[in-house]
Amino acid sequence: MALKQVTYAHHSFDIAYDLVNPAASKTIVFLHGWGSNKEIMKQGFANTLSEFKHIYVDMPGFGKSSNEMVLTTQEYATIMQLFLQQLGYETCSELTIAGHSFGGKVATLLEPKNLILLSTAGIIEPKPFKVRVKIKLAKFLNLFGLGKITKAFRSSDVNQMSQNMYETFKNVVDEDFTAIFQAYRGKTFIFWGETDTATSLQSGEKIHSLIKNSEMVSYNGDHYFFLKYNNDIAKRLENGIL
């Protein structure tokens, strides 16, 4: 593991990353989803795509990368751009970037030459009835200054977040990226799990319809389908990019 220090908005971020095939001439960057880290992306792809240099990144606040700010998705993209510039990539127009879930939104904002979306977030989906009730009740309690009580309605993974990461989560969780997907013009490969309950297959199909220069393949799997189908995904990418 290596570290690069990035400065943004008068804050310093220690960004942890790993390189695979460092001598390769082409580069692919892997961005993980919310609550995850670079290790799961390495688990999926480190033994594939041998003609590419792989850059696996812990985004701020995840894995071994620091974050003391409340961030937006656009700010994550800006920090990743600054990080890549430190590695010698002035722009992302020469890169292939793969993003899983939340990482797919960040990857899209970076506008790479080739974009790989793995069960990407960014399409607003109807929330289950229980979730809608919890949200309305939490908002009602907050009106009366009873914010501490609302913590009881948070999921266990949310409760484990620091306050700034929880505020960041609220910034990024329900974003509509429809216009951003529609505006992207690079080559796009969309891969999805057909039984994904975090980001539905219908969301993937909508993204496919929004991005003109895109191909989509789905697999019999959940939100982490790529761990099982990594070799097939890699072959499709090699045939599409190389």
Textual characterization of the structure:
One of its GO terms (cellular component) is membrane. InterPro entries: AB_hydrolase_1, AB_hydrolase_fold, AB_hydrolase_sf. This is 2-hydroxy-6-oxohepta-2,4-dienoate hydrolase. Residues 27-110 form the AB hydrolase-1 domain. One of its GO terms (molecular function) is hydrolase activity. With 242 residues, the protein is α/β, with parallel strands linked by helices. It has 2 domains: 2-124 and 175-241, 3-Layer(aba) Sandwich (Rossmann fold), CATH 3.40.50; 128-174, no CATH class. Helices cover 38% and strands 21% of the residues. It has 10 helices and 8 strands. It has helices at residues 38-45, 73-86, 102-109, 129-143, 147-150, 156-159, 163-172, 178-183, 201-210, 230-241; strands spanning 2-8, 11-20, 26-31, 52-57, 96-100, 114-118, 187-193, 214-219. The chain has an 8-stranded mixed β-sheet with strand order 1-2-4-3-5-6-7-8, sandwiched between helices. Helix 2 crosses helix 3 (102-109). The longest helix is centred in the middle third of the chain and has 15 residues, at 129-143. Residues 129-135 have low confidence and may be disordered.
Ordered list of secondary-structure elements with their pairings:
Layout: E1 2-8, E2 11-20, E3 26-31, H1 38-45, E4 52-57, H2 73-86, E5 96-100, H3 102-109, E6 114-118, H4 129-143, H5 147-150, H6 156-159, H7 163-172, H8 178-183, E7 187-193, H9 201-210, E8 214-219, H10 230-241
Parallel strand pairs: 3-4, 3-5, 5-6, 6-7, 7-8
Antiparallel strand pairs: 1-2, 2-4
Helix pairs in contact: 2-3
Domain AB hydrolase-1: 27-110
Protein name: 2-hydroxy-6-oxohepta-2,4-dienoate hydrolase
Keywords: Hydrolase
